[in-house]
Request: fold
Amino acid sequence: GTYESPIIGDGTTWRNFNVLDWVEDVACSSCDVQMQVRSGATATAVTSATYVGPDGTASTYFSAAEGDLLNLAQLDDPFIQYQVTFSGTTARSPILYAASLWAYEN
Reply:
């Protein structure tokens, strides 16, 4: 299944989002949590953007729960959103406890 976060940001450009990290419990060998982000100059622009992974394409996913650097294309946008893709078995599924987007001041 998937989860889509609310759009994050307030339109100010004094900060840049640069790291995505999360806390997960992947309870089986075929379970996984994968993340993608999309961003835009406005909240409306985010909703029409494509979710991408670390190389800026839709075919890749962030997978390092301890923190993955965002693609440089996302660093200048004041609004961002992430999507989580969960994979598991009929008996077990992963758990996402928390997700964070880190930012730094320009």
Summary: The CA atoms of residues 11 and 78 lie 5 Å apart.
